């Protein structure tokens, strides 16, 4: 039962370095299928692995919806790695082949763009997410989404990475030891602190342990640990600077400021208050909030984008063209 583009199903894919989420819905918003799969981030042309993940997710979604690819009117795809204008044509071609769908039915953007669409419906808005990496985007109005430090060159403060260096400094005498040191060593599975630096250098500490330290840091902060306090204060300061830069870039006094991602989602209420206060100290009119779709899953974000932008953006580094709603 092939549907035309105007009445077809909407399919959304959101792929990053740790997972890929997909959803398929009707024009009226009824969810017909959801899927989560492996990572599908790309660098340059889509790899065989990423293409396989994306293609299999579309297969599964179509099966759940009892539909074929011909029934899909529009497909929104947000992927980590859609960064450069000169790579976009090759990436568009590769993703269309991976999905086995006509290129003209697919919108392909950086995953920060779909994250912003899922974060808030407000026209003027900014997004700051810190998960496996940093994600930032902003817009002055719908259809004018712009990436913020999407290459990560500005090195937004990451308390997980800073903790690894701080523990080494405590061990070698460059920083005053606090209880955070022993808690971190236990978390990393290091019994002998003299073996720590070698374990870090030779990558003997599992990555899941290296990146899962925020709850430990936040708990130590609430307990008054001075080293943890320094890490949290640095994070608040740098997050507020990034949010402030995006607020200024919108040209609005009161855009939505959305904060999300795994690191921030695991933070206690006290951290949220500290960060909101830091942002509103220089921009008192803004609204600081979690993403609107935080409970619905990231796969809904490309659908939000499709509802207003059912066509190709000009490039990954320029604002999307304003488009009529579907």
Describe this entry's structure for a reader.
- With 326 residues, the protein is α/β, with parallel strands linked by helices.
- It folds into 2 domains: 1-120 and 293-326, 2-Layer Sandwich (Nucleotidyltransferase, domain 5), CATH 3.30.420; 159-289, ATPase, nucleotide binding domain (Nucleotidyltransferase, domain 5).
- The protein contains 12 helices and 10 strands.
- The strands form 2 sheets. It has a 5-stranded mixed beta sheet with strand order 3-2-1-4-5. It has a 5-stranded mixed beta sheet with strand order 8-7-6-9-10, with helices on both faces.
- It is globular.
Which helices and strands, and how do they pair?
Blueprint: E1 9-15, E2 20-25, E3 31-37, H1 48-65, E4 72-79, H2 88-99, E5 106-110, H3 111-119, E6 125-130, E7 134-139, E8 146-147, H4 159-172, H5 179-188, H6 196-201, H7 207-210, H8 214-222, H9 226-250, E9 256-260, H10 262-265, H11 269-282, E10 287-289, H12 301-306
Parallel strand pairs: 1-4, 4-5, 6-9, 9-10
Antiparallel strand pairs: 1-2, 2-3, 6-7, 7-8
Care to give the gist of this entry?
The protein is of the alpha/beta class.
Write down how many β-strands occur, each being a DSSP E stretch of 2 or more residues.
10
By helix and strand content, what is the structural category?
alpha/beta
Coarse shape? globular
Strand proportion, as a percent range, falls in: 15-25%
Major sheet strand order: 3-2-1-4-5
């Amino acid at each position: 039962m092939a549907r035309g583009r105007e009445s077809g199903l909407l399919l959304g894919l959101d792929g990053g370095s740790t997972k890929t989420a997909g959803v398929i819905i009707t024009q009226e918003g009824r969810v017909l299928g959801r899927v989560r799969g492996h990572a599908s981030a790309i660098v340059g042309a889509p790899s065989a692995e990423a293409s396989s993940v994306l293609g299999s997710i579309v297969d599964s979604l179509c099966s759940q919806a009892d539909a074929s690819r011909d029934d899909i009117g529009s497909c929104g795809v947000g992927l980590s790695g859609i960064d450069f204008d000169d790579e976009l044509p090759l990436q568009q071609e590769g993703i269309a082949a991976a999905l086995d769908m006509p290129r003209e039915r697919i919108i392909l953007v950086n995953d920060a763009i779909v994250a912003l669409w899922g974060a808030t419906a407000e026209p003027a808005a900014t997004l700051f997410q810190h998960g496996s990496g940093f994600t930032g985007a902003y817009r002055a109005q719908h259809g004018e989404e712009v990436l913020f430090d999407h290459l990560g060159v500005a090195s937004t403060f990451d308390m997980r990475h800073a903790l690894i260096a701080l523990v080494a400094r405590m061990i070698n005498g460059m920083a005053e030891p606090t209880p955070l040191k022993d808690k971190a060593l236990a978390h990393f599975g290091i019994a002998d602190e003299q073996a720590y630096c070698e374990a870090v250098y030779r990558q003997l500490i599992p990555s899941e342990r290296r990146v899962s330290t925020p709850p430990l840091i936040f708990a130590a902060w609430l307990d008054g640990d001075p080293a943890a306090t320094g890490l949290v204060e640095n994070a608040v300061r740098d997050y507020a600077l990034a949010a402030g830069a995006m607020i200024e870039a919108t040209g609005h006094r009161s855009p939505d400021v959305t904060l999300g991602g795994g690191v921030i989602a695991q933070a206690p209420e006290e951290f949220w208050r500290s960060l909101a206060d830091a942002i509103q100290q220089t921009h008192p009119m803004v609204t600081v909030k979690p993403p609107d779709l935080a409970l619905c899953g990231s796969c809904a974000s490309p659908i939000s984008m499709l509802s207003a932008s059912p066509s190709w953006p000009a490039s990954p580094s320029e604002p999307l063209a304003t488009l009529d709603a579907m």
